[in-house]
Description:
Blueprint: H1 7-38, E1 45-49, E2 58-63, E3 70-75, H2 83-100, H3 111-124
Parallel strand pairs: 1-3
Antiparallel strand pairs: 2-3
The structure holds zinc ion.
Zinc ion is lined by residues 92, 96, 108-109.
Amino acid sequence: MTQGWSKREIQASLRRALRLRLRQRERVARALARLRRLLPLPHPVAVVWASTDASLYGSCERLGRGRRRRFRITLDPGQCETIAEAVDTLLHEYAHAMSWHDVPSQGDHGDAWGLAYALCYRKFWRVR
Ligand SMILES: [Zn+2]
């Protein structure tokens, strides 16, 4: 006698997990397009999905200089389990790109980031 899930149950579970991942990536891509429209930045912002070293939900990196300045937001698929967590992390990281675009990094979550995050949150969720 075997215990646990049947092969069919395991396959169905894997299909559900894959569908969630695909939906999550679609929703994040749409959310990024919406942020770019609502709060445009003078430099490109790209999102990649990859595991982060420090078990973070995500991170934001400022790359290049001058006209070649750009930002890379990394979202960790192992940490962002739901669509809501992924979108929330995107807002958090986009706020870093907003607060770092023309000044050197001034601490991770200082006043400039807090103001940028408030703007991201309110505009994205249409809070009045
Ligand atoms: Zn942060």
